[in-house]
Request: fold
Amino acid sequence: MKTNIKKPVELPGINNIAISGRIGTGKSTLAIHIAEALNWHLIDAGKVFRKIAKDQDFNIKHTDKIPETLDRAYEDKTLETLENGYNNVVQSHLAGYMARDIKHVFKILVVCEKNGMDDLDIRIDRIMNRDLIGSEDAKADAKQREESLVNKFRRLYVNNDQNWVYWDPKYFNLIVNTYSLNQKEALDFVLNHLLGKA
Reply:
């Protein structure tokens, strides 16, 4: 009997892929497409964290009320996957930063920038469409939750360094700008780099 099980695409020197980006940049969509194209496992850390928070009756919009022990346990698990796992596409805010010193992890930053500047309006529009919410709620999600996340991460991981952001390009191997690339173009751009065609 024949089976149609596709083998994962082997990428020499790359065991896992980390994808990070600001809220509403399209990182989740890109991660899904990369995992499908490579036949790798998708770990959408944001979904996992939202489920954990919900199970423990925490609202992720109030990041300051989520215990730091939960954040650390979650990030430790993500780091363990990046260090020791194989054929995983891990999407989370901190995935690129957490994997910054791991050579066998290919780190992708997803941005939405026009002329080198973040395009908050497009990110807000994407959040509205994704979550089916109004513009004020989407704006709060994009600005307030992101600010709260960054402040929490600064406190937990970088000794309150006020200049630190998890989307600093220095942590990444590749930057994908979804302002100028649609979903297919963004995927093709990444695959060309991963498969050595760029």
Remarks:
- The helical segments are 27-38, 45-55, 68-84, 95-98, 120-131, 135-157, 183-194.
- The first helix runs from residue 27 to 38.
- Residues 16-187 form a domain with the Rossmann fold fold (CATH 3.40.50.300).
